[in-house]
Amino acid sequence: MNMKSLAGRRVAVAAGLVLALGCGVSAHASATGPRAISGKTDEAVTHRSGGSGGKGTIAACSQDVLGVSSVKEPADSKEARHLLLIVQNAGDKKCNLYRYPLVRLGADARTTVPVIKGSDPTPGVPVTLAPGEEAYAALLVSGGARDEYEAKSITLSLQGRKLGSNAGKPIDVPMPAPTLYADDGQLVTYWTTASGFALDFIMSK
């Protein structure tokens, strides 16, 4: 990723940050990032701290504690085909992200976006976010397949610790463009703390 793209993405993240609060989602644009909030979730997992042998309970990340945004890649791209979904832990405790985001493009989407199975950097291990840390998932909006349609919304659901469970309520993700032109070739990656790693799976498509 070149420095121009990275700088553009950072500006877009600060401008498009969303904090999901309680039972709804409220947008808060802030040049300094998300404000810290506290939240609770029923999803938790026992996590062993590296090297210490001690155990502590780390809750699944939910809309209560995450700031969410999306940006085009590269930032100056005319088409919004390659997106980076960004979440930031705005709480005061560590939380875990499991597997990949369950994304729906458009209000009438019949299914969630298929995942790229080989994009999991650490299979079976959740991504743990400390307060202030970010994680990323790359989203391919259109892969040149059939049945193109207009999508005017992005909805993201977080998976819980148990396969098939959800952590919290769906989150409305800020749109990087007024309209996305999606098709049957859309794809999403697993969560990772390395944005470049995620983007490698979609930028050539």
From TrEMBL:
Residues 1-29 form the signal peptide. Keywords: Signal. PROSITE patterns: PROKAR_LIPOPROTEIN. Residues 29-56 are annotated as: Disordered. InterPro entries: DUF4232. Residues 61-191 form the DUF4232 domain. Coiled coil: none annotated. This is DUF4232 domain-containing protein. The lineage of its organism: Bacteria, Bacillati, Actinomycetota, Actinomycetes, Kitasatosporales.
